[in-house]
Amino acid sequence: MKEIYILFTDPETWIAKSIRLFTKAEYNHVSIVLSNDLKEMYSFGRKKLNNPLSGGFVQEHPKQGIFARKPHIRCLLCSLTVTDQQFEVINKYVQEMKENADAFKYNYFGILGIVLNIAIDHDQRYFCSQFVAFILEQAGIHQFGKPHALIAPHEIQNLPFLTPIYEGNLHEYYEVQYKAPYFLSGI
Question: Which SUPFAM superfamilies match (predicted)?
Answer without folding.
Answer: Cysteine proteinases
